[in-house]
Design a protein that fits this description.
By secondary structure, the chain is mostly beta strands. It has a single domain (about 10-110), classed as HesB-like domain (Hypothetical Protein Aq_1857, Chain: A), CATH 2.60.300. The chain contains 1 helix and 9 strands; from the N terminus they run βαββββββββ. The strands form 2 sheets. Strands 4-5-2-3-9-8 form a 6-stranded mixed sheet, with helices on one face. It has a 3-stranded mixed sheet with strand order 1-6-7. The longest helix is centred in the first third of the chain and has 12 residues, at about 10-20.
Length: about 110
């Protein structure tokens, strides 16, 4: 799998990360990673973290989103967004590489 286009982060996602960091003692970046597992084969792991030397760093609104080199091909041309719905609010990934995904949106297959 080759990386063709880097992932994108919406203004809404950067704004939510800024809100989270505004109340944090030590602001952190948002890490978006892909690992094996979940009901569809791969799953997203989204957490606050510190940058590593080989991360791709996407910046906006004074915030950073990190993607490690192993996860990067799986997230080629994906969009990282913030969603607020009746079922809850969360960071979501719109991934054009996924051929199937589970109902909760955290697991996918390629």
């Amino acid at each position: 799998m080759e990386l063709t286009l880097p992932p994108k982060v919406t203004e809404r996602a950067f704004a939510r990360l800024a809100q989270i960091n505004a109340s944090a003692e030590a602001p952190q970046a948002l890490r978006v990673a892909v690992s094996g597992g979940g009901c569809s084969g791969f799953q997203y792991d989204i957490k606050l973290d510190e940058p590593a030397e080989d991360d791709l760093v996407l910046e906006g609104a004074g915030q950073k989103v990190l993607i490690d080199p192993v996860s990067l091909p799986f997230l080629s041309n994906a969009t990282i967004d913030w969603s607020e719905a009746l079922i809850g609010a969360r960071f979501v990934i719109e991934n054009p590489n996924a051929t199937a995904s589970c109902g909760c949106g955290t697991s996918f297959s390629i």
